[in-house]
Amino acid sequence: MNQPRLGKQLISLALVAPLLLFLIVFFALPLVTMIKSAVSDPVAARTLPATARSVSSWDRTSPPTVEMQAAFVADLRQISDDQLFGDLVRRLNSAKSGFRTLMPKTRKAALDTAGSIDLVALDKRWGDISYWQAVSVAASSRITDRNLLAAVDLQRDASGAIASLPADASANKAIMLRTFVMALTVTGACILIGFPFAMIAASVDGWKRQLLLGAVLLPLWTSLLVRTAAWFILLQDRGLINSVLMQSGVTSSPIPLIFNRAGVIIAMTHVLLPFMVLPIFSVLIGIPKNLMPAAASLGAHPVRAFLNVLLPLGLRGVVSGSLLVFMSALGYYITPALIGGAKDQMISSVIAYYATGAANWGMAGALGLVLLAATMILYAIYLRLSSERETSP
Amino acid sequence: MKILNATLIVCALATIGTATAEARDLTVVSWGGNYQDAQRKIYFEPFAKQAGKPVLDESWDGGYGVLQAKVKAGVPNWDAVQVEAEELALGCADGIYEKVDWDKLGGKSKFLPAAVSDCGVGAIVWSTGISYDGDKLKQAPASWADFWDTKKIPGKRGLRKGAKYALEFALMADGVAADEVYSVLATPEGVDRAFKKLDELKSNIVWWEAGAQPLQLLSSGEVVMTTAYNGRISGLNRSEGKHFGFVFPGSIYAIDSWVVLKDSPNKDTAMDFIAYASKADNQSKLPEYIAYGLPNIEAGKLVPAKFQTELPTSPDNLKRAISLDVDFWTDNSEALTQRFNAWLAQ
């Protein structure tokens, strides 16, 4: 009795195995890696073990002791892996600018001479206590909240208390907020255009419906980059839109449509519109066609019939379309980069800088984590609201 | 159970299939646009013909993290890459490049001293400076003060998006002498001064990232002046009959180098390619297409006189130009970029 059941379970497990593998490899693992890279900070503790021991008794305000300096030089002599040393330099330079040139110089001196080294004589930066504070903070712990704090414009000051970064040093919070505002604006614009479009597409049939759906699907099959480049050509000062407006005498000088928020919203709305139209269309097509005439026969004004009958029934499509559009819009990178100005860049551009420009994966991971957390909170609020609506009479 | 086994086998086969896929052809990566078109003509295609093997070329927009990620991932999918001075310094310290076999290149003495490094071979000397459309602009800009003066020359300006170059140019516009720019920028007051100067122009700036963008911005009239790479400007003038100007006084020059990524499967071929592209008679063909200075000393002498005057390395052009301070930027890039991004967002 037990044997066949086990076999069946194994078969069903095997059937979902590709899906499970896919989820683990492309979803769970990257997520775990990202979280880990945001908070783990083992490189200094691993490469500077003697320094870590000797700074544990240092108060971080008095001048560095002779033992600390000797331990630091001894640690530098032990590092044989250049890439590991590079990681250490990057970690330290990210906390305090200047390590980038200071460390290779110090390491070279440590390897060239056998005895003790006067670090301050080698480079006067070693006399600056803030460099030692950076070494001490980095070496004394294997996990850090530095990246997560910096992702929301906070830092730990010399005493270890959390304080905000100077206003002109970081703008992650402002950019994060802007990302959400832009994603919301695009979602709103998609609803305003997508709902009527889906209504029309659902109410006609034959070639007219095919034509309308084709108009939505065709752009979906074109590369995002191509569509963005097309908008670039259309929106520029001497582009098609402005030429037509100026020739027809609507304006005398070109309307600024590119390198600003308006351009980005227009292009993103166009790119994401299919994700709004298709869910709404699929819901509307399932609504019996005689409901609206029925409402009219009961004396409802068309507007009232729409508000009381069609809109509530179509709302499910609007909600799932909105979720799709909003979530996709949050991660947009290439469209704001090409069409937007400096004030229209979204958080993904900051993440991209840390990942591909600065090779600071910790900061990139932390920003991604904050974005993920903020999105999850919004999603939880949405779930809460939608379940309340379903249970209410 | 059978199905599970079958799934496992299929997965295993798929993995083996990708791992033993045919050895990749030599992949050379450069900066795109008309510069890469010229390189393709004089380096990539002739080398492929000589070696009897195809050469793939890709383009990139820089970023040390890109290279680091490729090397850390195991076997990189790029072989020879043209990098900026900062990426050369960072990567050489981190050990993500193969060491250069200078014997293959005929010895270090054949090259400009600044173009020689353990990990890279200088490919070009290039300048970043003001460029403008001579057909549209009657009064040519002469200095960074003119670039900042929107009353004298109204219109938008293009700048490369990033703290590097923007801060130096802002200080020069504010009256700092070219040779003092980096000593001023090394102080916190100097950085504040540069950002304050950028504030003045902020609403008139269009930011660009890829080297081909400023040409497009100038051609379409989207900007009246822009920073650009000098070689692309003269290249466009020649290929499309434009009359774009480039202002050498106050420009900043730097050296780009060829590197081979660590553990590249084609590292010998890549080194051969670099040797080919560094040969005097091959390198001297470049200025005909694009006016970049040549690190091979012999190649510099072979360039016809009519192209010499356009090169950043010609004595007249060097006079009031400055060299990029690579050490300053390797130290301060992250902190200043963070501040620059915050400034942009405000």
UniProtKB/TrEMBL annotation, chain A:
Q: In the UniProt record, does the keyword Zinc occur?
A: no
Q: Which InterPro entries match?
A: MetI-like, MetI-like_sf
Q: Which Pfam families does the record cross-reference, listed alphabetically?
A: BPD_transp_1 (PF00528)
Q: Where in the cell is it found?
A: Cell membrane
Q: Which GO terms describe its cellular component?
A: plasma membrane
Ordered alphabetically, the record's keywords are: Cell membrane, Membrane, Transmembrane, Transmembrane helix, Transport
Give the membrane topology, semicolon-separated if more than one.
Multi-pass membrane protein
Among the record's GO biological process terms, what is one? Answer: transmembrane transport
Q: Where is the ABC transmembrane type-1 domain?
A: 176-382
Its domain of life reads: Bacteria
* Membrane-traversing stretches: 180-204, 211-234, 262-285, 306-334, 361-382
Q: Hey, which family's this protein in?
A: Belongs to the binding-protein-dependent transport system permease family. CysTW subfamily.
Return the PANTHER family for the record: ABC TRANSPORTER PERMEASE PROTEIN (PTHR42929:SF5), INNER MEMBRANE ABC TRANSPORTER PERMEASE PROTEIN YDCU-RELATED-RELATED (PTHR42929)
This one is known as: Putative spermidine/putrescine transport system permease protein
Q: Which species is the source of this protein? A: Phyllobacterium bourgognense
State the taxonomy lineage. Answer: Bacteria, Pseudomonadati, Pseudomonadota, Alphaproteobacteria, Hyphomicrobiales
UniProtKB/TrEMBL annotation, chain B:
Keyword Signal assigned to the entry: answer is yes
Q: Which domain of life is it from?
A: Bacteria
Query: What keyword terms does UniProt attach to this protein?
Result: Periplasm, Signal
Q: Does the keyword Signal apply?
A: yes
Short name of any one Pfam family annotated for the protein: SBP_bac_8
Matching InterPro entries, A to Z?
Answer: SBP (IPR006059)
Leader sequence residues: 1-21
Q: What protein am I looking at?
A: Putative spermidine/putrescine transport system substrate-binding protein
Q: Which organism is it from?
A: Phyllobacterium trifolii
